[in-house]
Amino acid sequence: MATRIYVPCDTTALSMGADEVAGLIEHYAGIRGVDIELVRNGSRGLFWLEPLVEVETATGRIGYGPVEPDDVPGLVEAGLFEGQSDHPLFLGPVADIPYLKRQQRLTFSRIGITDPLSIADYRAHGGFDGLDKAVLLSPQAIVDEVKASGLRGRGGAAFPTGIKWQTVHDEPWQQQKYIVCNADEGDSGTFADRLAMECDPYMLIEGMAIAGLAVGATHGFIYLRSEYPVAHRILEEALHRAETEGYLGNDVRGSGRAFHLEVRLAAGAYICGEETSLLESLEGKRGLVRAKPPLPAIKGLFGQPTVVNNVLSFAAVPFILSQGGQAYADYGMGRSRGTLPVQLAGNIRQGGLVELAFGVSLKEILEDFGGGTFSGRPMKAVQVGGPLMAYMPESKWETPMDYEAFGQLGAGIGHGGVVVFDDTVDMGEQARFAMEFCTVESCGKCTPCRIGSVRGVEVIDRIRAGENREANLVLLEELCETMVDGSLCAMGGMTPFPVQSVMKHFPDDLTA
Predict the structure, then answer these.
(1) What does the alpha-carbon distance between residue 113 and residue 103 come to, in Å, rounded to a whole number?
(2) Shortest CA distance to 508 belongs to which of 446, 423, 434?
């Protein structure tokens, strides 16, 4: 019987030499006459261990990592094909690695375990159970389950997903309706969308198909970040296989209802992560923000009712339909229900994906999972939620991961990206970067964002140069307030958040 060996095929593992590692394992198996089955699985999200090679044994999957190409001959000599432990890279049973074992994986329960493109593998691990149940329910019953789950948009605004779906559901059925997935993942330190698409693509497909059944939409689009070629290749093949097997097309699972899905590559602009700008881009126009109302749920893509959700929002839906909305709502705290995929990045020793129920403290994530800084120096600041969110000092790290708790601090959870800085960082330079980022990425439609960000860079430069410092600090604060209150969308409205947090928590860095 062939020994099954797993080598990840996602972008992170590939960048660390996974293809070469896989080729060498096959090479040495051939030389030794060992019969192996090489499976290119997805990453488990333990990035500091990539490439993570796993060997299936009678006692479970045994891990070795991080495996570089030069390590393969030694691993083979030490008994890799038998899952032996006589090597420094031996990790033991992968399921028992503390980083993984302490998580509560609902959305990401399959990543790293299955072959991303195998429908049989997906089904064997609970895949499409939610869709099978959805086809037996009325559209309103599907929407009710999502509302009962308490699921909120995982893209940043945290708007209740079920309410958005209800709005589209209630629009007249004779209209064409659309499902649009915002997969233009552009926030710093975020990679959960990419992992979902590269490691478990049918989960996204299933979630979007359920959304289509719920609101009466027959067509969907995945607006994919153009810098994700691996995800693009995997999604296209997964869509083809799903349609061939009847999970997409004119008759979804024998329901008599149609749902077609296709991928469109994004425009390479951060502003297209804003839902109305995304819709403009999908229509073939320049990515400019639309004024609201009307909301996209009423007049969205091509002027028709449209559900626009983030990858992680759709990815949570199969579990909700399979296990029930209450099962999902049983996790979390307050109005933040379910789990949050936290992405640890920046100056961190153990970077990767951590899925936990809302309510865990930021400090616990940083220390118990992140393991401190990569540099070994003390942490100074943490930015949660992307480049438009506040920098948090150590005094705020006990805050639970909860939308309302973070909001009370003037911070936000956003897409769940956590970027860590050690004590060598110049927070004044980070404040300047926030304004500069806006000058580059603004769509330019509204004056507070377009002009305010340019003036912001200039004022910060004057403050740091010691020019009329007190007056310029007052001017910077007033400029931030104008951008927050006057910008058309969150691009200009949130750019001041990191600047204001530096002024409040790291004032000496700004004036240094």
Answers:
(1) 15
(2) 423
Residue 306: alpha-carbon gap to chain centroid: 21
Report the number of distinct structural domains present in the chain.
Answer: 4
**Residue 511 identity:** T
Q: What's the pLDDT tens digit per position in 392-433?
A: 999 999 999 999 999 998 899 989 999 999 999 999 999 999
Kindly state whether residues 379 and 338 are assigned to the same domain: yes
416, 431: one domain: no
Phi/psi of residue 406, each to 5°? -70, -40
Asked whether residue 320 falls in the same domain as residue 337, the answer is: no
484 part of a folded domain: yes
Residue 4 parent element (H or E): strand 3-6
Looking at the domain assignment, is residue 107 inside a domain? no
Per-residue model confidence (pLDDT) at position 248:
97
Instruction: Count CA within 13 A, CB hemisphere, residue 317.
Output: 37
Beta bridge partners of 5: 38, 55
- Is residue 405 located within the same domain as residue 456? no
Phi, psi dihedrals of residue 34, rounded to the nearest 5°: -95, 130
CA-closest candidate to residue 106, choices 352, 309, 331: 331
Question: Which of 295, 329, 363 marks a domain boundary?
Answer: 329
Which structural domain, as residue segments, surrounds residue 54? 3-94
Q: Which residues pair with 264 in a beta bridge?
A: 223
Cα–Cα–Cα angle for 330, 325, 301, rounded to 5 degrees: 125
Token output for 462:
């004057």
